[in-house]
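[PROTEIN RECORD]
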Amino acid sequence: MKTIRRVLRNTYFLLFLLILPLVFFGGCTTDETKEEPQSAEEEYMAYFMDHPARFIPWMRFDSTAEISNGDLLYFVFRESNATTADQETIDQLTEQFFGITPDNYLSGINDYDEDTLTATVNDNWLDHVNSSENKPIVLLKTLETTGDNTYQGVFRYYYIYGDEEDEEISSDPETAATEILAGNTEPYEKYGTNIEMEFERVETADGFYLRYISCQPAGFASAKPPETLPEMPALSDLPAGGDANFSEAEILDAYQVVCDYFNGLNSWNRKAAIEALSVNRDTPNMIIAEKGASYLVKTIRYQGSGKGANQEDLIRMTVDYELICDETLPTLSPQSSGDYDGWGIELERENDDAPWRIYTQGYA
């Protein structure tokens, strides 16, 4: 019997020795099977490629108070990948990613039904919403903590699309991203622009997202507007006493809006420039207060007046100006340096008591 007990004790002891390593090390994996954590560069590269709408270099702002309704609505349609969005969805997405909501749900890219509280993207923007977006290739360069879960980052944005004949690079975003992460950046550098973004990183159950505080190309933050603005020319071809539709004072009120618009552009004051625009022309591709751009207005001519499709009051003017761009600052302006003569501007107002606002502009 003693022999049996001794054998059992030895057996239990051997089992204990076998089980002990499993207790301490059973949950671990070998180095061969353990998944390596992503680097910060890999993590942010994947985030923007997985969520193309969330890379926003076209939204240039020192603070979210500067973001236009058009920019916010454009972001919503891209992020939701839909041609309609109700007010609840719009508010939820803009609050989530910018901490603000639009003060007007009608913009230059969409209509808005006040009965159903639904925004619908215009036909001109359907391609932007329905087409598959080019995946942005974004390489984190620097990242600094600015507060609790807030960061200032510099990202190198490589826009490789549209130059498929360049044999030194891959036009496939996945391949290009792999090469850039591996350090093979030299052939891609001519397509690169540094973007500075300040953001709050919000952790979620399945990952994270960025809530933006500011976004602009590198160098924009230190760029300063001119101390004095170019003098605006007097309105030419103004009919004495006005025309058949409007008095001279009414026409001069419209002229002043044009002056305010160009003064906003020249002072790099996006908000002031937007205030001169009709509410449904607040849109990302309008000419709005680009840093480093100077508009030297040579003449403003009165061209006539009339009624619009909805019987709103209309006044037409043409402007001759020279645009001078600071070549050291990246620009998203739809125009480049040069002379723009005969640039048409059309202003509208809803009634006699409403202010004039710029409804559209460009060459006829």
Summary: The longest helix spans residues 2-25. Residues 12-17 have pLDDT under 50 and may be disordered. The chain is about 25% helix and 30% strand. Helices lie at 2-25, 40-50, 69-80, 87-98, 126-130, 173-181, 248-266, 270-275.
